[in-house]
Amino acid sequence: MARRLERIVSRTALTKYLYLRYHERRFTSASGFDRRFRGVYADFASAAAAAPRTKPLGYDNEATAGLLTEERHRIHDSDFPILFWLSRLLREDSRVFDLGGNVGISFYAYRPYLPLPQGCQWLVYDVPAVVRAGQAILATDPAPQLSFTSSYDALQGAEILLAAGSLQFVEEPLHFLRSTTPLPGHVLLNKMPIYEQPSAVTIQATGSSYCPYHLFNRRELLNAFAARGYELVHSWQNPSLGCNIPMFPKHSIEAYSGFYLRRAPN
Question: Is the pTM of the predicted complex or chain greater than 0.85?
């Protein structure tokens, strides 16, 4: 329906102008869960330069860091494939590296449904403002198995890498594939904007900030993992999640994706 409407309003310069003005107002007034997007850019830097200057850029600020605090007790349909695989992968000495795990939202949401083995450790990697918010929650809601870091070096030694709706916000999302030794044996990706178009970047409005946001080409992403020895074990869709980018129908995605990739031991 949205794409059909765009074809109609694009027929004249006036209707296209009014349509874009309408979406610009919605974009700049978005709340944290409106999922508003604007524009398509060649790279992260171009998207960052095009973002409005009326709010901070990215998650490394107090207002944006606290956006998902209350979400940590909610579980969504899109979480169940991750729960399924974690229930089979976690061992007594497992170490989970939760890349972009915010204030521990996956840890807290999964905890009632996924009893962690006593020796299992869950390490959240995020930007400093988010790490501070997560540590403040830990002070009032203790979780001995949960900890936080802003250092990629902490990925070394992790058996499982989890990235649930986070890689799209990272300027170099696959940096860890080139820089980490040894690589984790298991990678769980979820809530990913994946399509068949060339990789690109858009901008998401969170309500308190604007974030450059990767759109991943499926083959390119999976080939990058295959080049480092990973095989695709399972893929799925998140039909409740997607992105509509006004006037860019080829870059709009109806359903996000998830993957479980496994790396054979050296």
Answer: yes
For residue 138, the enclosing domain spans 2-263
- Residue pLDDT, tens place only, 177-213: 888 889 999 999 999 999 999 999 999 999 899 999 9
Domain tally, the chain: 1
pLDDT (tens digit per residue) in 25-36: 888 887 766 789
Distance, CA of 225 to CA of 187 (rounded, Å): 10
Closest by Cα among 87, 105, 149, 141 to 124:
149
Q: Closest Cα partner for 171 from 219, 217, 212?
A: 212
Dist CA 91 CA 101 (whole Å): 20
Q: What are phi and psi of 31, to 5 degrees?
A: -95, 180
Instruction: State the CATH number of the domain containing residue 169.
Output: 3.40.50.150
Single out the residue of 204, 231, 233, 199 nearest to residue 218, CA to CA. 199
Residue 199's φ and ψ, nearest 5 degrees, are -55, 145
User: What DSSP letter does each residue of 37-80 carry, written as one string?
Assistant: EEEEESSHHHHHHHS-SSS-BSS-SHHHHTTTGGGGG---GGGH
